[in-house]
């Protein structure tokens, strides 16, 4: 059994929908046990959820991109992760991340860089998307990895869209493939 924890914050529901798509992709891999851990509006998770993170083979971080980085709620969680960091509880776990913003760019890469740095501080093994971008003239908005990210999963939801309207189907399908990749990679590193 490969245990995967997806810990995320979602302010409006778009990142939650992205997290659920990552979960669906991860859960579709044989032998995967996947848990969604939502960071509260106060930036906290329960002691049981901290224990789930410690027991996971892979941790996937998720946050919307607000003002060029993670939400304050995610940052509060990240700061609290100094406790497992001190004893290197997440060392050699597979790490990965995703983010969503209203524009195609939205400085999502700086959010992924922050999440990558968090993973590196925890001595994790980082996994990117492993997906080629859809960047030809024939590419359509709902193609796989249309946003074109390698270091982590990116999605775009228009600022006036509801979670039912965004992220778009192509971004959600990309999220499913990403979730499956993380599980498959974690299974290779499992002791």
What does this structure look like?
It is a single chain. The chain contains six helices and six strands. It is globular, with a radius of gyration of 15 Å. Helix 1 (14-27) packs across helix 6. Strands 1, 2, 3, 4, 5 and 6 form a six-stranded parallel β-sheet that branches. It has one domain (2-189): Rossmann fold (3-Layer(aba) Sandwich). By secondary structure, the protein is an alpha/beta fold. Helix 5 links the parallel strand 4 and strand 5. The chain has helices at residues 14-27, 47-55, 72-80, 82-86, 108-121, 169-189; strands spanning 2-8, 32-38, 58-64, 94-101, 125-126, 153-156. Helix content is 38%, strand content 18%.
Protein topology:
Blueprint: E1 2-8, H1 14-27, E2 32-38, H2 47-55, E3 58-64, H3 72-80, H4 82-86, E4 94-101, H5 108-121, E5 125-126, E6 153-156, H6 169-189
Parallel strand pairs: 1-2, 1-3, 3-4, 4-5, 4-6
């Amino acid at each position: 059994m490969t245990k995967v924890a997806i810990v995320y914050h979602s302010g409006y529901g778009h990142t939650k929908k992205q997290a659920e798509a990552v979960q669906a992709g991860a859960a579709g891999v044989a032998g995967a046990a996947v848990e969604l851990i939502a960071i509260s509006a106060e930036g906290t998770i329960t002691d049981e959820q901290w224990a789930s993170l410690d027991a996971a083979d892979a941790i996937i971080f998720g946050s919307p991109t607000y003002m060029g980085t993670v939400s304050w709620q995610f940052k509060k969680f990240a700061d609290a992760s100094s406790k497992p960091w001190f004893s290197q509880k997440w060392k050699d776990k597979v790490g990965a991340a995703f983010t969503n913003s209203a524009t195609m760019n939205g400085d999502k890469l700086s959010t992924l860089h922050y999440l990558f740095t968090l993973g590196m501080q925890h001595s994790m093994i980082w996994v990117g998307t492993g997906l080629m971008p859809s960047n030809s003239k024939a590419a359509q908005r709902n193609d796989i990895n249309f946003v074109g990210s390698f270091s982590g999963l990116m999605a775009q939801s228009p600022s006036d869209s509801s979670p039912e309207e965004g992220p778009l189907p192509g971004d959600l399908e990309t999220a499913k493939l990403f979730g499956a990749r993380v599980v498959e990679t974690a299974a290779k590193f499992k002791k």
